[in-house]
């Protein structure tokens, strides 16, 4: 398959999916995180377990399109339908290998904001944390998905909804930021630095928006291009291209 | 005997009697599932005021109640439109300083309700540490830093939340208030234990003899149930496991129309104020688009002696 027409959002999903290992317990959000989970589960992580905050645990793949985790295709053939505390306690007990969240802003330290942003015309109120703060603080590995735009990639976020770490928790835990230009990872100083750019993305583009996320002493690789199998599976999962082909990053 | 008295009544009577101006109301407790929208619309029609809403992720239910002017305070983890993100009424109300918001995360809100359910004044948690939510909750007297006397670990103590009334929509309920629910449950059980009163709207009113055939499916203590109301499609446009799918088009229409204050008021006229009866509401719903096509049913469990 010709992969040259891969969209940035398809690259985001593939990069996020590559962080999921077989057997992982994964706390999954809707939209792109769910696609990434389904992609990994279809190809190399068949026994990854999906845990969903509304109170669902799924072993089986749900490939029907859903807008929320409570849609009936998602309830049907769940492995366990239960309460929010039962599944969110997996996090508090330290049993979740990987959590994937989105948000409105992320900063150099990996703090994520989904509560409010300061704009020229005043404060803009957003929906809030949901489970993001819990996932960010309590999952063993955190993946954040965010478009690479100046208003989103900040030195300091306007509001810390989901701290990347705290004094008492998660010292040394890695945060991985997946954008539509490349993948960033926290370094030894717990700062997010560019780790790999996508094929055909110029590092200068990253320098223009967030020079502080480039550490010239670290080598920046080019991400392994998507395989035919990854592209074909993703396009079968997002059949109409609703999430990854027909919208902007 | 009080507990054997039938609690069946109409939705108008249930809301008029048990949702009091200025009280705290927990709803949307199963997250995007089984949201008691019919009850929310009755609250709007009756013009309730100064309510405190409590719920983790309420999809557009909180947004509608806020837009209709019923709410002065929100205790939640997420308020918006799950299909599209922003809840326009919520954002407008916060930006204009018309409502107070106590921001929690899902786990911290659930934990505070669990403390209420357990009958204890507070509960420790490992979440929220380092967040701006915690700063605000501390300032409001709802959270405190705490060191565990057994392990020395630094944790946060959350004050228990005890709502005045919880409103749930379930698949079945009997005349005594034994409400049965399945699919994901969110924090329905904890909130029903923590609250003082429960209003149940239900898809199917059944007899107590019927619910006793499957007592494991009951989700609330019936002695707190003050009203049982049969409301067909009472959770529409949210989904109800085994009964109907989510009406996604409805969420998109709402998102588009509530972008402006005027648009929202027109939406309210079409879907709330202008709806004279449940039958009229049902006629407006595109039932074919939410009908369950692929039914997966399980044999009834066996109990016996």
What does this structure look like?
The complex is a heterodimer of chains A (249) and B (305). Chain A has 249 residues and is of the alpha/beta class. Helices cover 24% and strands 21% of the residues of chain A. Chain A has one domain (8-237): 3-Layer(aba) Sandwich (Glutaconate Coenzyme A-transferase). In chain A, the strands form three sheets. A ten-stranded mixed beta sheet of chain A has the order 4-3-2-1-5-10-12-13-14-15, sandwiched between helices. A three-stranded mixed beta sheet of chain A has the order 7-6-11, with no helix packed on it. Chain A has a two-stranded antiparallel ribbon with strand order 8-9. In chain A, α1 (8-17) packs across α2 and α2 packs across α7 (228-237). The two termini of chain A are 23 Å apart. With 305 residues, chain B is of the alpha/beta class. Chain B folds into two domains: 2-118 and 162-289, Glutaconate Coenzyme A-transferase; 122-159, no CATH class. Chain B is globular.
| DSSP helix fraction of chain B | 25-40%
Strand order of the largest sheet of chain A: 4-3-2-1-5-10-12-13-14-15
CATH homologous superfamily annotation of the largest domain in chain B: Glutaconate Coenzyme A-transferase
> What is the name of the CATH topology of chain A?
Glutaconate Coenzyme A-transferase
Number of H/I helices of chain B: 11
Number of strands of chain A: 15
Structural class label of chain A: alpha/beta
Q: Helix proportion of residues of chain A, in percent?
A: 10-25%
Q: Segments of chain B where pLDDT lies below 50 for 5+ residues?
A: none
Overall pLDDT level of chain A: 91
H/E element order of chain A: HEHEEHEHEEEEEHEEEEEHEH
Q: How many beta strands in the DSSP annotation of chain B?
A: 11
Q: The CATH topology of the largest domain in chain B is what?
A: Glutaconate Coenzyme A-transferase
Shape of chain B: globular
Write down the domain tally of chain B: 2
CATH class division of chain A: Alpha Beta
Distance between the termini of chain B: 28 Å
| Percent in strands of chain B | 15-25%
Q: Biggest β-sheet of chain B, characterized?
A: 8 strands, mixed
Number of domains of chain A: 1
Main sheet characteristics of chain A: 10 strands, mixed
């Amino acid at each position: 398959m010709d992969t040259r027409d891969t969209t940035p959002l398809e690259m985001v999903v593939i990069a996020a999916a590559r962080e999921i290992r077989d057997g992982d317990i994964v706390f999954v959000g809707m939209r792109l995180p769910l696609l990434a989970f389904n992609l990994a589960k279809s190809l190399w992580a068949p026994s990854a377990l999906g845990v969903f905050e509304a109170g669902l645990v799924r072993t089986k793949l749900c490939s029907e399109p859903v807008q929320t985790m409570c849609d009936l295709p998602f309830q049907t053939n769940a492995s366990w339908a239960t309460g929010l505390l039962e599944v969110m306690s997996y996090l508090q007990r330290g049993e979740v290998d990987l959590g994937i969240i989105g948000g409105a802003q992320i900063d150099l330290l990996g703090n994520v904001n989904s509560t409010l942003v300061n704009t020229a015309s005043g404060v803009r109120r957003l929906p809030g944390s949901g489970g993001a703060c819990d996932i960010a603080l309590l999952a063993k590995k955190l993946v954040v998905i965010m478009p690479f735009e100046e208003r989103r990639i900040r030195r300091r976020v306007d509001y810390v909804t989901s701290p990347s770490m705290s004094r008492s928790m998660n010292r040394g835990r890695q945060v991985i930021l997946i954008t539509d230009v490349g993948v960033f990872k926290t370094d030894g100083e717990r700062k997010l630095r560019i780790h790999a750019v996508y094929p055909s993305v110029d590092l200068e583009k990253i320098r223009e928006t967030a020079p502080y996320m480039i550490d010239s002493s670290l080598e920046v690789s080019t991400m392994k291009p998507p395989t035919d199998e990854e592209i074909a599976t993703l396009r079968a999962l997002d059949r109409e291209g609703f999430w990854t082909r027909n919208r902007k990053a | 005997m009080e507990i054997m008295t039938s609690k069946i009544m109409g939705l108008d009577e249930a809301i008029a009697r048990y949702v009091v101006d200025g009280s705290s109301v927990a709803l949307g407790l199963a997250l995007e599932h089984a949201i008691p929208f019919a009850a929310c619309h009755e609250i709007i029609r009756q013009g309730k005021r100064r309510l405190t809403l409590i719920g983790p992720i309420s999809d557009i239910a909180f947004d509608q109640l806020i837009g209709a002017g019923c709410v002065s305070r929100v205790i939640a983890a997420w308020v918006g439109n799950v299909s599209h993100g922003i809840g326009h009424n919520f954002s407008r109300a916060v930006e204009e300083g018309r409502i107070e918001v106590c921001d929690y995360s899902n786990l911290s809100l659930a934990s505070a309700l669990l403390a209420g359910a357990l009958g204890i004044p507070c509960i420790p948690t490992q979440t929220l540490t380092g967040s701006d939510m915690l700063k605000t909750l501390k300032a409001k007297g709802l959270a405190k830093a705490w060191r565990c006397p057994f392990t020395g670990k630094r944790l946060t103590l959350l004050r228990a939340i005890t709502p005045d009334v919880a409103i749930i929509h379930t698949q079945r309920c009997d005349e005594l208030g034994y409400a049965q629910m399945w699919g994901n449950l969110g924090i329905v059980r904890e909130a029903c234990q923590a609250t003082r009163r429960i209003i149940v709207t239900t898809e199917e009113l059944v007899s107590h003899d019927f619910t006793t055939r499957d007592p494991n499916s009951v989700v609330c203590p019936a002695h707190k149930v003050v009203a049982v109301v049969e409301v067909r499609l009472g959770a529409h446009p949210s989904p109800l496991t085994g009964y109907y799918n989510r009406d996604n088009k409805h969420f998109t229409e709402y998102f588009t129309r509530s972008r402006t204050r005027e648009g929202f008021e027109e939406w309210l006229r079409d879907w709330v104020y202008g709806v004279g009866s449940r039958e009229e509401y049902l006629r407006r719903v595109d039932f074919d688009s939410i009908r369950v096509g692929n039914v997966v049913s399980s044999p009834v469990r066996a109990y016996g002696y």
